[in-house]
Amino acid sequence: LDFDGIPVYDLYPEPLPDLFEGSQIILVGRYREGGTADVELSGLVNGERQTFDFPEQRFTSSSSDLELTPPRTGGGVPTSGPQSAIPRLWATRKIGHLLNQIRLSVPNQEIIDQVVRLSIRYGIVTPYTSYLVTEPMPLGAAEQNRIVEEQVLAMEAMPAEAVSGQAAVQKAADQASLAGAEAPAEQSVEAAGRVRQVGARAFVLSGKQWIDTAYDPEKTETIKVAFLSEDYFALAERFPELATAFALGQSVIAFAEGSAYEVVPQDRPVAPLDIPPAQPEPSGTSQPAQPPANSTSAPTQPVEERSPAATNAAGSTPIEPEQRNPLLCGGGLLPILLIPVGLVGMQIWKKRQQP
Questions:
Q1: How many of the other CB atoms lie within 10 Å of CB of 154?
Q2: Alpha helices in the chain (DSSP H)
Q3: Three-state SS at 55
Q4: 3, exposed or middle or buried, with CB in 10 Å at 0-12, 13-18, 19+?
Q5: Which helix (H) or strand (E) holds 160?
Q6: Residue 71's Cα: distance from chain center in Å?
Q7: Would you state the pLDDT for residue 322?
Q8: Quick one: which of 27, 35, 85, 28 has its CA closest to 61?
Q9: Model-level pTM?
Q10: CA distance 81 to 79
């Protein structure tokens, strides 16, 4: 699978496995910057190479374009769109891949660093990544560095794990299920009261305040806005992602266009806000999926781009990107500070002729 015009990386699964008639593969990955790309799918069918071309597929540059569904009636709060699950699906698979590496090798601080930061950033709580539940305030680079150091020391002090037996088999199966997940990791009952998903973003409850997990208290200064004030409603109207975040409660820290907004009590004096105007809509529209160039021998639906949750809808939809955020994903992941990084959600079908 080639993307001409958009550099992609961190694809899972990689390499693509064999595809059989009636089966499907959900491929997730990342890309930098939006634009259009010519997508080419090729493979061997009964020993003969076949190629299907899908020109000018649009990759959006901001997850806010796709992660929210407008309200059905005026004045309502937008809801999370179906494609908002794609960033967490990618992170689930990435974490599963990293946990497999840890299980099969000696403790590696670089890999553990990635697991810690990804699980906190995307709100993924598993028996192996429970930092959002066990830590009082696991946000910010300094606090996450401490968690990483503690995890490395704990793993180095542990006796070598058995490579066989029921426990080893179960652990390998659990981590493999994350690496090959068809949907984002489900929240445990314990995590449900403290971790919430809003669109593509995760929030953690600290005291009585819901905080975006991208927030770094040591590096980010918040813009204060009084609960239910004129500025509060103006921000909610200007930024739909803030409207859904503000619905969490009366005390929230959430991001919009790189700025952190903090909802404070109504009686707290705050300066009036200078709310930035909306950016003009980009010219042009998303290009629909084009028929393959060799349509005479192509299957009915060789490629579709959809949410992982969709299984029967026809047609293609734009590709879901990850939101911009000020958190550095360390340890081998490139920084995503001020860089629009996208998440690709694709479902690929290819019928295989029977011999």
A1: 11
A2: 86-104, 109-121, 131-134, 141-157, 166-179, 189-192, 230-238, 240-246
A3: strand
A4: middle
A5: none
A6: 23
A7: 37
A8: 35
A9: 0.70
A10: 6
